[in-house]
């Protein structure tokens, strides 16, 4: 059976447009449909991306549609919302983002969509939880890109610090996709060897790493980009395309996503960034890392921040 590989993107702004372009260039989809309250802008974005499609290896349809298009979509990407401004945290955008979600939930539910919902809109963890609760869909079908982008940034920071290709670095950023994200340094390996071992064995190179600085640099990169150009877009667009690929190809790949915890890591009823196996089912299984005491504390602190804002979101 020929698969449709149809992706609907709700939101045709900076993030939504780059998600579509990344999907186009990676060539894993057959159809991209935009939904946006500003239809003229969505038409322009779709047309611009469609022009680029003329140079791709195979034809990909890029167009504007409506919620009826969600019915037979494999994946819906939620990229609508309000971009954060200089000086704002992702959590500061919550009120405006929830207002947007309230306009989306009912038509999305009513569309008959039965695929996987990937939330990108910030604050990502809270939006994923809000959409899961208000759609009533099972937890495997609703997820956020979570700390996948944070993990990419961590790899870049490590590469700059130690000069090793990011593809040889195994690591995860966990917790909130935001300023309270944490890094389980005890689980970072370089070419299969634990980072902490390398730091002890090579005090003149790896041993000079300042782990606190690496954490703060990883957390800060997003705001540095916002200050420099007004928004982040290329990184998250590529993260989304990579996640779509893992789902469409049923890769069973481990990725750091924001998904509902039900006892894992000692947490209940919260969406937060953790490593999970991603397949055609969406989130197939959460992977529990054996965190040390300080890492557990940082993860719990991040969860507390998310939980506080989740409660506020339900009151909006």
TrEMBL record:
Residues annotated as binding NAD(+) are: 11-16, 36, 41, 67, 81-82, 120-122, 145
Q: Where in the cell is it found?
A: Cytoplasm
User: Does the record bear Transferase in its keywords?
Assistant: no
Subunit structure of this chain's protein: Homotetramer.
Keyword Amino-acid biosynthesis included in the entry's annotation? no
Keyword list, A-Z: Cytoplasm, NAD, Oxidoreductase
Q: Which PROSITE patterns match?
A: L_LDH
Q: Which named protein is this?
A: L-lactate dehydrogenase
Q: Where is the Lactate/malate dehydrogenase N-terminal domain?
A: 6-143
Q: Which reaction does it catalyse?
A: (S)-lactate + NAD(+) = pyruvate + NADH + H(+)
GO molecular function terms attached to this record: L-lactate dehydrogenase (NAD+) activity
Q: Recorded E.C. number(s)?
A: 1.1.1.27
Q: Which GO terms describe its cellular component?
A: cytoplasm
**Protein role:** Catalyzes the conversion of lactate to pyruvate.
Listed binding positions for substrate are 84, 90, 122-125, 150-153, 232
């Amino acid at each position: 059976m020929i698969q449709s590989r149809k992706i609907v993107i709700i939101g045709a702004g900076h993030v939504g447009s780059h998600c579509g372009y990344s999907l186009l260039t990676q060539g894993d989809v057959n159809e991209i449909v935009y939904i946006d309250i500003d239809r003229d802008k969505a038409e322009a974005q779709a047309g611009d991306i469609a022009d680029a499609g003329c140079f791709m290896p195979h034809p990909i349809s890029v167009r504007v549609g409506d919620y009826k298009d969600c019915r037979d979509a494999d994946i819906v990407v939620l990229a609508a919302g309000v971009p954060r401004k200089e000086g704002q945290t992702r959590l500061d955008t919550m009120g405006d983002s929830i207002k947007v979600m309230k306009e989306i939930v009912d038509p999305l539910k009513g569309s008959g969509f039965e695929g996987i919902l990937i939330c990108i809109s910030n604050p990502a963890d809270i939006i994923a939880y809000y959409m899961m609760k208000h759609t009533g869909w099972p937890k495997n079908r609703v997820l956020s890109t979570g700390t996948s982008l944070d993990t990419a940034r961590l790899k870049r920071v490590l590469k700059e610090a130690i000069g090793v290709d990011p593809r040889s670095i195994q690591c995860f950023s966990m917790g909130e996709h935001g300023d309270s994200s944490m890094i389980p340094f005890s689980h970072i390996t370089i070419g299969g060897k634990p980072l902490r071992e390398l730091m002890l064995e090579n005090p003149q190179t790896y041993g000079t790493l300042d782990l606190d600085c690496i954490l703060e640099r990883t957390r800060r990169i997003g705001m540095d980009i916002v200050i420099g150009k007004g928004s982040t877009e290329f990184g998250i667009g590529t993260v989304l395309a990579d996640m779509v690929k893992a789902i469409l190809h049923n890769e069973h790949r481990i990725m750091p996503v924001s998904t509902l915890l039900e006892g894992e890591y000692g947490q209940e009823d919260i969406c937060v960034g953790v490593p999970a196996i991603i397949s055609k089912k969406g989130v197939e299984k959460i992977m529990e890392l054996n965190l040390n005491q300080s890492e557990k504390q940082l993860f719990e602190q991040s969860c507390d921040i998310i939980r506080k804002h989740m409660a506020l979101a339900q009151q909006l």
